Amino acid sequence: MLNNQPAQDPELDSVFQALADSTRRAILVRLCEGPASVSELARPFAMSLPAIVQHLQVLEASGLIRSEKIGRVRSCSIVPSAVRLAEAWLRSRRTAQESRLDRLESFLDSPDPPTTPRSTP
Question: What does the alpha-carbon distance between residue 113 and residue 79 come to, in Å, rounded to a whole number?
């Protein structure tokens, strides 16, 4: 049964909005290796530095990364707790689906599946 009620967690909504863009996901993958400066993060992309800064602002507003200025260099790092929030939500959905699939597999593998009585005319 599908739950069609609107989400009640704005923080989770913000995380998934940030993850919806491939550039932002690539930035997060890079930050999983360790902190990096804005210029380091911008290097692999064929876009302007202001465009990268906008992506970083979305990631920071969602709570997925934090940035700090050290001298003249702005450095970014990942916030593990925000990533775990998304992982936990996905895990809870996967667990429910896996449980249903396990029950279906058991039913299909059973040697004598339950039969329903047929009505005779």
Answer: 49
Q: What is the pLDDT of residues 39-98, one digit of tens each?
A: 999 999 999 999 999 999 999 999 999 999 989 999 999 999 998 988 988 888 877 677
**Residues 15, 63, 83, 72: what is their CA dihedral angle, to the nearest 10 degrees?**
130
Long-range contacts of 64-70 (CB under 8 A, 24+ apart): 64/15, 64/18, 64/19, 64/28, 65/27, 65/28, 65/31, 67/38
Three-class SS state of 45: coil
pTM greater than 0.90: no
